[in-house]
Write a structure and sequence with these properties.
The structure holds two protein chains of two kinds.
Chain A: H1 20-30, H2 34-56, H3 59-75, H4 86-105, H5 141-153, H6 157-168, H7 173-180, H8 184-206
Helix pairs in contact in A: 1-2, 2-3, 2-4, 2-6, 3-4, 4-7, 5-8, 6-8, 7-8
Chain B: H1 4-15, H2 21-33, H3 35-52, H4 61-79
Helix pairs in contact in B: 2-3
The chains are: A mainly alpha, B mainly alpha.
Amino acid sequence: MATEAIPAPPVATPGNEAPSDELDLVARAKGGDGAAFSVLINRYEGKVFRLAMNITQNREDAEDVLQEAFFKAYEHLDQFQGNSKFYTWIVRIAVNQALMKLRKRKSDRTISLDEQIDTGEDMVVREVAAWDPDPEERYSRDEIHTILTEAIDGLLPIYRTVFTLRDVDGLSTEETAEALDLSVPAVKSRLLRARLQLRDKLTRFFKRKGDDAFAYM
Amino acid sequence: MLTCKEFLTELTDFLDEKTTTEIRAKLQRHITECPNCWVICDTTKKTIQVYKGMESCTIPEDIHSRLMAAVERKIAAGKK
């Protein structure tokens, strides 16, 4: 049976602490103020749901992960000391819940976000062609949304998750490492691969007209 | 001069401006001399920019409603 572990309270890192209004909301929620906890939910539910979708690739599982993550956060609020942002903490809980979902789906196989990586192939740059200065202007808003979503959906879960936390949500490399329980060098290596693979995928749409992509390295 | 592989290894730190001044100077010199790496660097930077510009994620309304109702039930049960 899967263990119901809650990530240990993070070690304080200068600059990564929770903002004061967040500490206030958590303190009120600890005291039983449901409205304060609802503010935290409203602030982060969209990002947590996207993260859960990124890992599980299934709407129903992602909804379960979302609910379980906020339930567990509420039950263990006394463990949150404000040494990190609330978001970093809830991400760690959600990642654990999402991995448990995957394990249940695939019976007893041990699953981590790191499986199936480091084949060497993913560091290969296939497309080298300059882009237009503002490549996205060639497409409508909906088209751009589809292009970006399909490209990111094509990445392995670990790359998708690292890229989303680091480059879309704007967490620092250290916060991303803490949220995913990875080392900083591991986050950097996965981020590089994610960025290069996305760049490759987008080059097909954004390259300057007349430039032919050619094989490289 | 750096090789292209060495340049790629440092690309993430270079784009995040986390390299030492000495390494940064070497990387800058490499992209002025290597058109392919200049393109990779420029297009990777643009890749990050287009994703940063993506509209913030909104949660489907039905999922939001069910979450709020479930959390309210949980909080109410805890108060009994």
